[in-house]
């Protein structure tokens, strides 16, 4: 396993482990737990993509993984919109802040991903430096809104300890450029590795909460 | 192009709801209430039998009986903005506790499991 894939698997595992730190056997049913597993996987993917590194030739893999992360985040949203007739009410006026934050995260993640590809990128940004600054800013905005969405919905993260652990994972992924540089290879991973780690974590997440109930 | 199509589809789902047979739940305005609320299925003679009344009915403890829950919680402008959070906390916390203890529990997350009128259930 490459170093990038190992880091990705570790981040996916850590994000899901945070959810197990309280009420590991408490679930919302197969439909809800599977939909939320997609959400946690999307968050893990976003966090991996945030690891600061000079990617260079590995940019293509970073880009490809970005599409997967966007697809997973979109699947999380559409899963509930298509499967539960009351969810849409929580995206209409009067909805709680947590839901607005989730919607904002998805709406920022889309341009962050789609406007980073060539040739669109060149049309929007004249210089690479300008692109990088905007790309990073949008990345931080997505992490902020998505993690607040997870914390404020408060179903799987019910204790302050879990919020603190998630914050620690977020900080480790978004900060510490020099520490990540010591790992050697830039933090890039393949889409199949993301799918495999996600499948294993989501299966554990759903089965632990629903099997035998 | 694909993203634009998904955006339109998402917007349509939020405005019009999912296609049948999935139930589409709308907020409704109860007479005298300021804010529209989601319909709610709740019957005393179902799984809530055996739970002490005062667990939910604080008016029994406060000695203010005589009106329905909705009378204050929906129409009182001081407490009506808290309705959703208060009732989600009240119902869900109990369901989650019971599920964590391995007992048969009510819905912990699924919106449509509770938010249906009795006729639709």
UniProtKB/TrEMBL annotation, chain A:
Segments traversing the membrane: 37-58, 65-82, 97-116, 137-158, 187-208
Name used for this protein in its record: Uncharacterized protein
Alphabetized UniProt keyword annotations: Membrane, Transmembrane, Transmembrane helix
């Amino acid at each position: 396993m490459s170093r990038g894939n190992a880091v990705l698997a570790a981040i996916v595992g850590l994000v899901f482990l945070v959810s197990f730190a309280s009420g590991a056997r408490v679930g919302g049913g197969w439909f809800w737990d599977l939909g939320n597993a997609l959400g946690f996987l999307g968050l893990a993917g976003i966090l991996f993509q945030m690891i600061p590194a000079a990617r260079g030739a590995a940019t293509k893999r970073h880009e490809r993984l970005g599409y997967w992360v966007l697809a997973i985040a979109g699947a999380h949203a559409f899963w509930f919109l298509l499967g539960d007739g009351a969810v849409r009410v929580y995206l209409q006026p009067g909805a709680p802040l947590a839901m607005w934050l989730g919607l904002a995260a998805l709406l920022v993640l889309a341009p962050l991903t789609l406007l980073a590809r060539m040739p669109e990128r060149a049309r929007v940004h004249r210089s690479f430096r300008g692109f990088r600054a905007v790309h990073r800013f949008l990345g931080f905005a997505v992490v902020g809104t998505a993690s607040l969405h997870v914390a404020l919905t408060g179903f799987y993260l019910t204790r302050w300890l879990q919020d603190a652990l998630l914050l620690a994972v977020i900080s480790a992924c978004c900060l510490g450029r020099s520490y990540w540089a010591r790992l050697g290879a830039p933090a890039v991973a393949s889409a199949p590795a993301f799918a495999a780690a996600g499948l294993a974590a989501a299966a554990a997440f759903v089965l632990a909460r629903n099997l035998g109930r | 192009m694909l993203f634009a199509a998904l955006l339109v589809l998402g917007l349509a789902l939020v405005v019009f709801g999912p296609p049948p047979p999935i139930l589409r739940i709308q907020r409704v305005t109860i007479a005298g209430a300021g804010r529209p609320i989601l319909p709610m299925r709740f019957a005393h003679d179902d799984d809530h039998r055996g739970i002490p009344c005062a667990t939910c009915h604080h008016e029994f403890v406060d000695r203010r009986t005589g009106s329905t829950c909705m009378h204050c919680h929906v129409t009182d402008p001081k407490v009506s903005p808290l309705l959703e959070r208060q009732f989600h906390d009240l119902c869900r916390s109990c369901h989650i506790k019971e599920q964590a203890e391995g007992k048969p529990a009510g819905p912990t997350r699924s919106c449509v499991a509770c938010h249906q009128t009795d006729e639709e259930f």
